[in-house]
Write a structure and sequence with these properties.
A hairpin with a 2-residue loop joins strand 8 and strand 9. The chain is built from ten helices and nine strands. By secondary structure, the protein is α+β, with helices and mostly antiparallel strands. It is about 50% helix and about 15% strand. The chain has a four-stranded antiparallel β-sheet with strand order 2-3-7-6, covered by helices on one side. The longest helix is centred in the middle third of the chain and has 37 residues. The chain folds into three domains: about 110 residues, Acyl-CoA dehydrogenase/oxidase, N-terminal domain (Butyryl-Coa Dehydrogenase, subunit A, domain 1); about 110 residues, Butyryl-CoA Dehydrogenase, subunit A, domain 2, CATH 2.40.110; about 150 residues, Butyryl-CoA Dehydrogenase, subunit A, domain 3, CATH 1.20.140. The structure holds flavin-adenine dinucleotide (FAD). The site of flavin-adenine dinucleotide has 23 residues, from helix 4, strand 1, strand 3 and helix 10.
């Protein structure tokens, strides 16, 4: 299936593409080298209404569809994966669960500010002892009998956690009930007891930040339970559904990164000369480019298809796992090929392709490792009629 973008979607793509080329691209290398949080990028994206594009108009958001969101992730990822990761955590992981599961009051309180980028969001699920096995979280939220919960515990790897204003935080309100005892809270990060324990020194996406967070006797009113009282015990569902949709953004970003890497490789092979001619004239290298372009075409079509299905209201949990798996693995190969085409130059920091090579690696790990995506897909393939994937 091929996709014809609507006029509006094309306008979004053109606007983000221009912004990415003119604003993000010249700064991406420096952000990576200096480990600078891309706050100025966040500010600019907020001005353009692109920081949380899926927030509906009734909450002062742009009300864009998921395909537009995928296009934004793709175009930002094409030049700067750190910024794409930062806005992914803000939009997919923090704004979306409030949008999808919040009470009217919670939506009124948070969504306009998240849409405007006035507050930055993050999502706290992973803990030192609970990664893939998210049901094993040990952070507790215990009712104090006065309409509050007292939260104790720690989270790890929380993107934006060091500077965010609000966190969607998963904690166990009833450890005896396992996943049915997990509850999501919306917590302003200024709440006493909330502490940033440090920032991880990562291999890639070094302009984005992953924090260790601790909560010590953090008192939160029950009104902060995502979805109100009905949200008690629904936290695991909130987390899984949030990640399902978030994976479309990761797949789109990986597609954009592969595209960006290919563009850099094309430019390089046209300029670099060996054996008396441009290396683009060697057929073996042309075949690399043919493989890369074909892979990217397949990735983009898969991502757009799943985004369209989500916009049509279909359950995309398994297809989202499929594109997350396929696009991140394929993008890794494409970027590796692009680096190979650069020869030794690709191995040094002076050339952007070195950053792409480090940055792409995380996409196979976060928002559920690719092994976990395979578990999700295999479970469905064994359970359902295989023909539903036509
Ligand atoms: C840069 C970065 C940003 C992140 N951002 C966030 C964030 O904003 N919020 C948040 O909550 N979390 C975040 N995470 C956490 C991320 O989602 C987890 O790292 C990921 O889910 C894997 O968990 P883990 O690292 O504990 O690995 P583990 O779960 O310990 O896995 C180790 C290995 O075992 C494999 N494995 C585990 N269980 C199975 C199984 N059942 N079957 C097959 N293989 C299995 C895994 O695939 C992996 O290869 C981030 C992580 C990183 C590195």
């Amino acid at each position: 299936m091929e996709f014809t973008l609507t006029e509006e979607q094309q306008m979004v793509r053109d606007m983000v593409r221009e912004f990415a080329d003119e604003w993000l691209a010249p700064r991406a290398h420096e952000m990576d080298m200096e480990r600078r949080i891309p706050l100025e990028h966040v500010e600019k994206l907020s001005e353009l209404g692109l920081i949380a594009p899926v927030i509906p108009e009734e909450y002062d958001g742009p009300g864009m569809d998921y395909l537009s969101y995928a296009i934004i992730s793709e175009e930002v990822g094409r030049v700067d994966a750190s910024t794409a990761t930062t806005i992914g955590a803000h939009c997919s992981l923090c704004s979306s669960p409030i949008m999808n599961f919040g009470t009217d009051e919670q939506k009124q309180q948070w969504l306009p500010k998240l849409a405007a980028g006035e507050v930055i969001g993050c999502f706290g699920l992973t803990e030192p002892m609970a990664g893939s096995d998210a049901a094993g979280i040990q952070t507790t939220a215990v009712p104090d009998g006065n309409g509050n919960y007292i939260i104790n515990g720690a989270k790890q790897w929380i993107t934006n956690g060091s500077f965010a204003d609000v966190i969607v935080l998963l904690a166990s309100t009833n450890p005896k009930k396992g996943i049915m005892g997990i509850t999501a809270f919306i917590v302003p990060t200024k709440t006493p007891g909330f502490e940033v324990g440090g920032v991880e020194d990562t291999m890639g996406i070094r302009g984005s930040q992953q924090a260790v967070l601790t909560f010590k006797d953090m008192q939160v009113p029950e009104e902060w339970i995502l979805g109100g009282k009905r949200g008690i015990g629904r936290g695991f569902t909130v987390a899984m559904k949030t990640l399902d949709a978030g994976r479309i953004g990761v797949a789109a970003m990986a597609t954009g990164m592969a595209q960006g890497a290919m563009e850099k490789a094309i430019q390089f092979v046209k300029e670099r000369e060996q054996f008396g001619k441009a290396i683009k004239d060697f057929q073996g290298l042309q075949w690399y480019l043919a493989d890369m372009a074909t892979s990217i075409y397949a990735m983009r079509n898969m991502v757009y298809r799943v985004a369209c299905d989500k916009d049509a209201g279909k359950d995309v949990a398994t297809p989202a796992a499929m594109i997350k798996l396929f696009c991140t693995e394929t993008a890794f190969k494409v970027i590796d090929q692009a680096l190979q085409l650069h020869g030794g130059y690709g191995y040094c920091k002076e050339y952007d392709i070195e950053r792409y090579y480090r940055d792409i690696r995380i996409t196979r790990i976060y928002e559920g490792t690719n092994e976990i995506q395979k578990n999700i897909i295999a479970r469905d393939v064994l359970k359902k009629d295989p023909k539903i994937w036509y």
